[in-house]
Write a structure and sequence with these properties.
Elements lengths: L2 H14 L5 H18 L8 E5 L8 H4 L6 E6 L5 H7 L7 E5 L2 H6 L9 E7 L7 H14 E14 L5 H15 L5 H14 L3 E2 H10 L2 E8 L5 E8 L1
Parallel strand pairs: 1-2, 1-4, 2-3, 4-5, 5-6
Antiparallel strand pairs: 5-8, 7-8
Helix pairs in contact: 7-8
Length: 237
Protein backbone atom coordinates (compact mmCIF):
# COMPACT_ATOMS: atom_id res chain seq x y z
CA UNK A 1 0.00 0.00 0.00
CA UNK A 2 1.51 3.37 -1.02
CA UNK A 3 1.67 6.41 1.25
CA UNK A 4 -1.49 8.01 -0.13
CA UNK A 5 -3.53 4.81 0.19
CA UNK A 6 -2.32 4.29 3.75
CA UNK A 7 -3.12 7.84 4.81
CA UNK A 8 -6.48 7.81 3.06
CA UNK A 9 -7.49 4.51 4.65
CA UNK A 10 -6.82 6.08 8.06
CA UNK A 11 -8.92 9.09 7.12
CA UNK A 12 -11.74 6.82 5.95
CA UNK A 13 -11.71 4.98 9.29
CA UNK A 14 -12.01 8.30 11.11
CA UNK A 15 -15.01 9.25 8.98
CA UNK A 16 -16.70 5.83 9.02
CA UNK A 17 -16.42 5.59 12.81
CA UNK A 18 -17.80 9.15 13.11
CA UNK A 19 -14.90 10.16 15.33
CA UNK A 20 -15.16 13.79 14.20
CA UNK A 21 -18.97 13.93 14.10
CA UNK A 22 -19.13 13.88 10.32
CA UNK A 23 -22.69 12.47 10.37
CA UNK A 24 -24.19 15.38 12.31
CA UNK A 25 -22.11 17.83 10.32
CA UNK A 26 -23.29 16.35 7.02
CA UNK A 27 -26.91 16.63 8.14
CA UNK A 28 -26.39 20.28 9.12
CA UNK A 29 -24.71 20.97 5.77
CA UNK A 30 -27.60 19.42 3.84
CA UNK A 31 -30.13 21.47 5.81
CA UNK A 32 -28.16 24.67 5.20
CA UNK A 33 -27.81 24.17 1.44
CA UNK A 34 -31.40 23.06 0.92
CA UNK A 35 -32.63 26.03 2.97
CA UNK A 36 -30.48 28.44 0.96
CA UNK A 37 -31.82 27.00 -2.29
CA UNK A 38 -35.40 27.43 -1.06
CA UNK A 39 -34.70 31.10 -0.32
CA UNK A 40 -33.34 31.92 -3.79
CA UNK A 41 -35.63 34.10 -5.89
CA UNK A 42 -37.50 32.35 -8.67
CA UNK A 43 -36.16 32.75 -12.16
CA UNK A 44 -32.48 32.72 -11.25
CA UNK A 45 -30.22 30.34 -13.18
CA UNK A 46 -29.12 27.18 -11.37
CA UNK A 47 -26.37 27.96 -8.86
CA UNK A 48 -22.70 27.34 -9.56
CA UNK A 49 -20.86 25.58 -6.74
CA UNK A 50 -17.18 25.31 -5.86
CA UNK A 51 -16.11 22.75 -3.25
CA UNK A 52 -12.79 23.78 -1.69
CA UNK A 53 -11.07 20.65 -0.40
CA UNK A 54 -13.64 18.26 -1.84
CA UNK A 55 -11.85 15.03 -0.86
CA UNK A 56 -13.49 11.85 -2.13
CA UNK A 57 -17.09 13.11 -1.59
CA UNK A 58 -17.99 9.98 0.36
CA UNK A 59 -20.42 11.94 2.55
CA UNK A 60 -21.46 14.87 0.35
CA UNK A 61 -22.10 12.98 -2.89
CA UNK A 62 -25.62 11.85 -1.95
CA UNK A 63 -26.62 15.50 -1.44
CA UNK A 64 -24.84 16.71 -4.57
CA UNK A 65 -26.60 14.13 -6.73
CA UNK A 66 -29.98 15.63 -5.88
CA UNK A 67 -29.08 19.33 -5.95
CA UNK A 68 -30.25 21.41 -8.95
CA UNK A 69 -26.82 22.86 -9.66
CA UNK A 70 -25.72 24.68 -12.78
CA UNK A 71 -22.15 23.46 -12.39
CA UNK A 72 -19.80 21.97 -9.82
CA UNK A 73 -16.05 22.39 -9.39
CA UNK A 74 -14.30 20.03 -6.98
CA UNK A 75 -10.94 21.35 -5.90
CA UNK A 76 -8.39 19.57 -3.72
CA UNK A 77 -4.63 19.90 -3.28
CA UNK A 78 -4.42 16.09 -3.13
CA UNK A 79 -4.74 15.08 -6.79
CA UNK A 80 -5.23 11.31 -6.20
CA UNK A 81 -8.60 11.87 -4.50
CA UNK A 82 -10.13 13.64 -7.48
CA UNK A 83 -10.86 10.52 -9.59
CA UNK A 84 -12.60 9.03 -6.56
CA UNK A 85 -14.77 12.11 -6.21
CA UNK A 86 -15.49 12.20 -9.95
CA UNK A 87 -16.67 8.61 -9.89
CA UNK A 88 -19.28 9.48 -7.27
CA UNK A 89 -20.79 12.23 -9.47
CA UNK A 90 -20.44 10.60 -12.88
CA UNK A 91 -24.21 10.50 -13.54
CA UNK A 92 -25.30 13.96 -12.36
CA UNK A 93 -27.11 16.13 -14.95
CA UNK A 94 -24.89 19.19 -14.53
CA UNK A 95 -21.26 19.68 -15.68
CA UNK A 96 -18.54 18.81 -13.18
CA UNK A 97 -14.88 19.75 -13.32
CA UNK A 98 -11.95 18.88 -11.11
CA UNK A 99 -8.83 20.76 -10.19
CA UNK A 100 -5.72 19.92 -8.16
CA UNK A 101 -5.14 23.23 -6.40
CA UNK A 102 -4.97 24.63 -2.88
CA UNK A 103 -7.94 26.67 -1.75
CA UNK A 104 -6.00 29.83 -0.92
CA UNK A 105 -4.49 30.15 -4.39
CA UNK A 106 -7.96 29.62 -5.88
CA UNK A 107 -9.49 32.32 -3.68
CA UNK A 108 -6.75 34.79 -4.62
CA UNK A 109 -6.78 33.99 -8.35
CA UNK A 110 -8.53 36.70 -10.42
CA UNK A 111 -11.37 35.12 -12.35
CA UNK A 112 -10.74 31.72 -10.78
CA UNK A 113 -14.12 30.52 -12.02
CA UNK A 114 -14.25 30.89 -15.79
CA UNK A 115 -18.04 31.24 -15.92
CA UNK A 116 -18.07 34.17 -13.50
CA UNK A 117 -18.74 34.63 -9.79
CA UNK A 118 -19.74 31.55 -7.80
CA UNK A 119 -23.08 31.18 -6.04
CA UNK A 120 -22.19 28.52 -3.47
CA UNK A 121 -18.84 27.85 -1.79
CA UNK A 122 -18.26 24.90 0.51
CA UNK A 123 -15.17 23.89 2.44
CA UNK A 124 -14.86 21.05 4.93
CA UNK A 125 -11.87 20.49 7.23
CA UNK A 126 -9.41 22.30 4.99
CA UNK A 127 -9.09 25.97 5.97
CA UNK A 128 -7.60 25.06 9.38
CA UNK A 129 -4.33 24.21 7.60
CA UNK A 130 -3.83 27.92 6.83
CA UNK A 131 -2.13 30.37 9.16
CA UNK A 132 -4.23 33.11 10.74
CA UNK A 133 -2.91 35.61 8.18
CA UNK A 134 -3.71 33.23 5.33
CA UNK A 135 -7.22 32.67 6.69
CA UNK A 136 -7.81 36.40 6.44
CA UNK A 137 -6.53 36.36 2.87
CA UNK A 138 -8.79 33.44 2.08
CA UNK A 139 -11.86 35.16 3.50
CA UNK A 140 -11.13 38.32 1.54
CA UNK A 141 -10.46 36.43 -1.68
CA UNK A 142 -13.46 34.14 -1.34
CA UNK A 143 -15.67 37.19 -0.81
CA UNK A 144 -14.53 38.58 -4.16
CA UNK A 145 -15.28 35.27 -5.91
CA UNK A 146 -18.87 35.05 -4.65
CA UNK A 147 -21.91 36.42 -6.46
CA UNK A 148 -24.46 38.62 -4.63
CA UNK A 149 -26.83 36.43 -2.67
CA UNK A 150 -24.25 33.66 -2.50
CA UNK A 151 -23.13 31.66 0.51
CA UNK A 152 -19.96 30.14 1.93
CA UNK A 153 -20.41 27.11 4.15
CA UNK A 154 -17.32 26.55 6.28
CA UNK A 155 -17.08 23.25 8.16
CA UNK A 156 -13.95 22.88 10.25
CA UNK A 157 -12.33 22.59 13.64
CA UNK A 158 -12.14 25.79 15.70
CA UNK A 159 -10.55 26.76 18.98
CA UNK A 160 -12.73 28.15 21.73
CA UNK A 161 -12.61 31.89 22.22
CA UNK A 162 -9.32 32.80 23.90
CA UNK A 163 -7.98 29.24 23.78
CA UNK A 164 -4.35 28.87 22.70
CA UNK A 165 -3.32 26.45 19.99
CA UNK A 166 -1.30 24.45 22.53
CA UNK A 167 -4.30 24.09 24.85
CA UNK A 168 -6.50 23.06 21.93
CA UNK A 169 -3.98 20.45 20.80
CA UNK A 170 -3.62 19.05 24.30
CA UNK A 171 -7.33 18.45 24.71
CA UNK A 172 -7.73 17.09 21.17
CA UNK A 173 -4.85 14.65 21.65
CA UNK A 174 -6.42 13.54 24.95
CA UNK A 175 -9.71 12.99 23.08
CA UNK A 176 -7.96 10.80 20.51
CA UNK A 177 -6.11 8.72 23.06
CA UNK A 178 -9.17 8.19 25.25
CA UNK A 179 -11.88 7.70 22.65
CA UNK A 180 -10.61 6.82 19.20
CA UNK A 181 -10.54 3.07 19.79
CA UNK A 182 -11.62 2.37 16.20
CA UNK A 183 -8.10 3.24 15.05
CA UNK A 184 -5.04 1.10 15.65
CA UNK A 185 -2.53 2.77 17.96
CA UNK A 186 -0.13 3.42 15.09
CA UNK A 187 -2.76 5.26 13.07
CA UNK A 188 -3.92 7.28 16.08
CA UNK A 189 -0.35 8.44 16.54
CA UNK A 190 -0.14 9.40 12.88
CA UNK A 191 -3.24 11.58 13.31
CA UNK A 192 -1.72 13.16 16.40
CA UNK A 193 1.54 13.83 14.56
CA UNK A 194 -0.36 15.39 11.65
CA UNK A 195 -2.52 17.74 13.69
CA UNK A 196 0.44 18.72 15.87
CA UNK A 197 2.43 19.72 12.79
CA UNK A 198 -0.17 21.08 10.38
CA UNK A 199 -3.42 22.05 12.15
CA UNK A 200 -3.98 25.70 13.02
CA UNK A 201 -7.66 25.97 13.99
CA UNK A 202 -8.97 29.50 14.16
CA UNK A 203 -10.10 31.09 17.41
CA UNK A 204 -13.89 31.02 16.97
CA UNK A 205 -14.49 34.60 18.10
CA UNK A 206 -11.42 36.08 16.44
CA UNK A 207 -12.11 34.53 13.02
CA UNK A 208 -15.69 35.78 13.14
CA UNK A 209 -14.36 39.31 13.66
CA UNK A 210 -11.91 38.83 10.79
CA UNK A 211 -14.69 37.61 8.51
CA UNK A 212 -16.92 40.53 9.39
CA UNK A 213 -14.06 42.93 8.64
CA UNK A 214 -13.81 41.27 5.20
CA UNK A 215 -17.47 42.00 4.47
CA UNK A 216 -19.14 38.79 5.63
CA UNK A 217 -22.12 38.20 7.87
CA UNK A 218 -21.38 35.19 10.09
CA UNK A 219 -23.80 32.64 11.58
CA UNK A 220 -22.93 29.48 13.51
CA UNK A 221 -25.22 26.71 12.25
CA UNK A 222 -23.90 23.74 14.21
CA UNK A 223 -21.31 22.98 16.88
CA UNK A 224 -20.17 19.52 17.88
CA UNK A 225 -20.18 18.14 21.39
CA UNK A 226 -16.36 18.18 21.68
CA UNK A 227 -15.98 21.98 21.35
CA UNK A 228 -13.97 21.70 18.16
CA UNK A 229 -15.94 20.71 15.04
CA UNK A 230 -18.40 23.34 13.82
CA UNK A 231 -20.24 24.70 10.77
CA UNK A 232 -20.55 28.40 9.93
CA UNK A 233 -22.61 30.13 7.26
CA UNK A 234 -21.03 33.21 5.73
CA UNK A 235 -22.96 35.52 3.43
CA UNK A 236 -21.60 38.68 1.75
CA UNK A 237 -23.01 42.00 2.87
Amino acid sequence: MDLFEHQWSTYRRVVDADLMEHQALSAATSTAIEGWLAERPEGQPPPRMVDLGCGDLALLASLLRRLPLGSYLGLDCCAPVLPRAAARLKDVPYPCSWRAQDLLSWALEPGANESGPVDLLHSSFAVHHLSDEQKGQFLSGAHSQLAPGGMLLWADVFRESGESRDSYLQRYVKRIRRGWHALPAEESQQVIDHLSSFDHPADAAAIQRTAEACGWDWQWLWRGQHRAEALARLTPR
